[in-house]
TrEMBL record, chains A, B:
A GO molecular-function descriptor: ATP binding
Name of this protein: Inositol polyphosphate multikinase
E.C. numbers: 2.7.1.140, 2.7.1.151
GO BP, sorted A to Z: inositol phosphate biosynthetic process
Keyword NADP in record: no
Class of this enzyme: transferase
Lineage start: Eukaryota, Viridiplantae, Streptophyta, Embryophyta, Tracheophyta
Entry GO CC: cytoplasm; nucleus
Organism the protein comes from: Rhynchospora pubera
């Protein structure tokens, strides 16, 4: 039973003449490989390379990437006579009844050094018109399930988000009543905080990006998802149509954006902790707490005496 | 006794109709404030703000920035009748007899969101033509003193450096014979390594950049300097004519470039350690060693079980 994913918050949607992803009932996510578009072939090449590269730690692959099961030829919903190969991926929202989902495109720039002038100009304009250049990331879409239904800002609205809107959305995303002003941030502790939370996962991903020089993830997104079922929130990298070989250089563009997102999430956690107060049983864990528990983040070194004699 | 700095490796040089910095015999570095160029006023505003902002930790200010002593009106070398105000800064090479110096401009992009279209286009071209966009930093100049004299590649040559050239220069910089192929990297341990070395200082600076949202250091450089005198090598931020207010956002552009430089320096140290062998008394400290000694860099967290059922 193939169907269109109900909880897609960004990207192409299947139907009405457009190719889009499909899901089945057993946890698969099928992404069409459009033969007239090299991006599909590029993404397939990435998955093939990434899942066979022994230099990628197993924990990184299994924690932060969708599982990959090769390709499968499937009929297109609106043109069932037409068959097309699809990437066979993991449906990252499988098992969630009412998922809260956010798609965050990481990196201040989405163009890569070898891009055509046309693509480069298009990306550069989007990066400057969105929050990417300023903040190092932009939100591509989100939805929040709350008691009285689903809150999902329109795509055109999300596209115009300012830095203030992005900060607000990161708070609404973990609020029981996202429409409230200010958002209540009632789920900050259980979604962003804790040793299995989003912040801890972001910090683990950051460690890998400080070291890995295999791939540069231009235009890739982080999918952040949780539901009320009490499972650990998920953080996964998606959309690899513009991944380039790292050629021995770290992905400083992705890493910088990731650090900016980490800072924003840390601030929300710190604010929620202050609001909860020291005697509140809901003890939150901030980045500082997590790092303190694990020892200093960086060696504290004495850098030698400094000349201050010029005053 | 004012004179032109002998060991300047980048930036404007004083004389022949051009304004440039001057030094005296007691550790001052005077940078002219050209009244027809707003950059001087901008840099003065930065120093004034930075040195009076209580949110900047004292250790960061004293370890990684030149001391600042206000302004002083001085005559111009080629036109002694002309008086001009100068920034009074610390001569970072004071006390070094034969300094080895490198100027590294940090950040994949040197333009800032509010830049004029003209300045933006100029910066963007330089970033793409140099290693900045690709590597997250570029070398603006360097000199190495060795037994038989001074090695200082010409400015036009440095401007054309490829990624390979940059990596090579980072090795030549800590070699006794920089012209040798491959460079000997004999000083890797004493300059880049150790608890007072450049890598340890870079990591300390990185910690601050992961947190600080006060300033964005567009087009700023790291000055790396050492001499044979046995003092701790110096790492200082310089050139603040394009520093912008951070407005609550981390400087992901600078941070990304800094992490890329850290990775390059770590690799040189690791290679030198391998070359030295395990029984060599010259024990090197790599980033991994330094971080291991201080505890894990990031909390190691369990991210929860991963579905792998789609294979």
């Amino acid at each position: 039973m193939l169907q269109r994913p109900e909880h897609q918050v960004a990207g192409h949607e299947a139907g009405s003449g457009t190719l889009g992803p499909l899901i089945d009932g057993s946890g698969h996510f099928f992404k069409p490989l459009n033969p007239s578009d090299e991006r599909g072939a590029h993404e397939l090449a990435f998955y093939t390379s990434f899942f066979s590269d022994p230099r990628v730690p197993h924990s990184i692959r299994s924690s932060f990437f969708p599982s990959f099961g090769g390709t499968r030829v499937l009929p297109i919903p609106d043109a069932p006579d037409l068959l097309l190969p699809h990437l066979v991926l993991e449906n990252l929202l499988h098992g969630y009844s009412n998922p809260c989902v956010m798609d965050v495109k990481i990196g201040a720039r989405t163009w890569y050094p070898s891009a055509s002038e046309k693509y480069y100009a298009k990306c550069l304009k989007k990066d400057r018109d969105s929050t990417s250049a300023l903040l190092g990331f932009r939100i591509s879409g989100l939805q929040v399930h709350h008691e009285s239904g689903r809150w999902k800002p329109h795509r055109d609205k999300v596209r115009k988000y300012t830095v203030t809107d992005v900060r607000q959305s990161l708070r609404q995303f973990i609020s029981k009543n996202p429409d409230e002003t200010p958002p209540d941030c009632a789920l900050a502790s259980s979604v962003y905080g804790g040793s299995n939370g989003i912040l801890a996962q972001l910090l683990e991903l950051k460690s890998w990006f400080e070291d890995q020089t295999l791939f540069h993830f231009y235009s890739a997104s982080l999918l952040i998802a949780y539901d009320k079922g009490g499972k650990a929130p998920r953080l996964k990298l998606i959309d690899f149509a513009h991944v380039m070989e790292g050629e021995g250089i770290i992905d400083h563009n992705f890493l910088g954006g990731l650090c900016s997102l980490i800072k924003c999430v840390s601030e929300i956690l710190a604010d929620a902790e202050t609001a909860a107060g020291p005697t509140d049983p809901q003890v939150l864990e901030t980045a500082a707490d997590l790092e303190a528990a694990a020892g200093p983040a960086e060696p504290k070194v004495v850098v030698g005496p400094t000349e201050n004699g010029i005053h």
